[in-house]
Amino acid sequence: MTPLAEKVVQDLLHAIDTDRVVLPTLPEVALKVREAAEDPNVGVAELSRVIAMDAALTARLIKVVNSPLLRTSKEITDLQMAVGRLGINYTANLATGLAMQQMFQATSDAVDRKMREVWSQGTEIAAISHALCKKYTRLMADRALLAGLVHQIGVLPILTYAEEQEDLLANAITLDQVTARIHPQIGERILKVWDFPADIACVPREYLALERQPAAADYADIVQVATQLHAQRQGQQEIAVQTLPAGIRLGLNNQPDPAQDQSFWDAVEQSRTLLG
What we know:
Pfam families: HDOD. The chain is mostly helical and 276 residues long. The chain has a single domain (1-272), classed as Hypothetical protein af1432 (Orthogonal Bundle). The chain has helices at 3-17, 28-37, 44-51, 55-65, 79-86, 88-100, 109-136, 141-150, 155-163, 166-169, 172-193, 198-201, 203-206, 219-233, 245-249, 262-272.
């Protein structure tokens, strides 16, 4: 890294350690939905009432449940029916992801564009993660989707900090270096503050560790492979995911290359409708 990038990294880490950088908070509706879903006594009707307080989220969930990936022979037009179709946990994870979009906005045009780029990439990784999970694992696809959405959540406070630092904001290379260096540990810290489960909270830090060796395939593996596939799709990398330890744990070494499998990308396109 450049000397400026190294200085910014140290300043940011110190500011976070001394609570001078405010970590982002989940939107209120997402907090309420997650709190309700964690109550073992909450049923579909109660969770539906919580979600119904946000008209936009209500409309998006009904749209999702009627998407090609989830729809049944009869169109669902009622929120309670939609929650019943999705289930409590699936609804909570999906609602959290959908509500998070409003966090990726800023007051300055430059930072706003960057935040929207991060969100856009997150939705792509989330869709690929969802499709990977369904095709190759017995893990929960809704959790894989959420893991994909939050894998770069640590970028948010960095960009918020950059808004107030003209030198940093004007230097795209330095900003990218700073972001790449520290967003993983900041992201993990944010998700722990949000009380996300450990198997998702570790994703921002673990998805970049190509040689990691967990006991079994997990959500960090899925996001790691999804990130590599997305990069290949953009012509940025040539790492064969079947040779990655994560790819082997997912069983990709015994399957057709998903990067070349049109049926897989069709599944990704269907998964993308959950966030559209």
